[in-house]
TrEMBL record:
Single GO molecular function: acyltransferase activity
Gene3D superfamilies: 3.40.630.30
Protein name: GNAT family N-acetyltransferase
E.C. numbers: 2.3.1.-
N-acetyltransferase domain sequence ranges: 7-145
Organism of derivation: Pannonibacter anstelovis
Keyword terms of this UniProt record: Acyltransferase, Transferase
Top EC class of this enzyme: transferase
Keyword Acyltransferase: yes
Amino acid sequence: MHLTEPIEIRPCRPDDLPRFAPLTAQGLAATLREGLTGAEQDRFCHLGLWLGDIPAGLLLSRRSSIVPGEQELLSVMVLPLLRRQHLALRLLEAFAARMKAEGRTRLATQWSERLPQGDAFAGLLTASGWRPAAKARLRMAFHVGERHDALPQHEMLMRQLERRGLIFKSLASLDAREEEGLSSATARLTACNALPVWADPRQWQDGLDREVSQALFNAAGESLGWLLAQHHATLGHWTLPCGWLSPSVHWHGALIAGMGELLTRLEEIRGPLSSLVLQPTTTEGAKVCRLLDSRFRPYAMWADSILESHKALG
């Protein structure tokens, strides 16, 4: 199709919502609404591409809550009849220019290796100056009742943990002293840059399931790590976005023991058919990723890899 109408790219407005809804994947409809009518609209940058009076393309993004200066690209879509006209490329270039003007230093995005036309999306990013796609994390989903087969040695690991003077406790069961110890440890580790940004439990409070999430303590009551579970009610599953242990815990079995405790608690409260999505990284958590892959992939309902790309805004 030959383009004859003038092209305009501008931030979406609340009254654009009904017209751009068809260009939004179902899972991102709430993100579109939140960016236009929510309480934190300044976190979002949703750009619409108009061809005359036709809403022809849409780009969704939000400011990262973890990486300072980073804007996350969530989606870029163009009407099927208008594809191969470089409209998506125009949206990406307008997005980069706007974010640079607003002081962002980096753009980033992630997508499933199973994304339809994923190769075309990766090529689009490369054409717009983004880094080549690379695997960022493994992702798999399974029913928590599968823990009995995936972790048959859980009780043995818990006994070994106890002999080492270590114990996992759910966040909901912590007393005031333990809560203070966990908070103090987080602040201290953050202050001395000993805690990775992604491991800060304050980043994962939305939907945090305190009944299921676990914290690790030694005999002196010192906090040495945590495994955090988030409940996504609308999606009907739990995720484990953050699992971190202090380098002073010289035993990888502690992480598997903590996973077993978290799964046990989830099964007790929500039942064996409750589903958990694991997303270990292939970079900082490469060893953990391989370990969880070998333990849980045989029982997964589905599994894929998450790809990522980024662009520096110099």
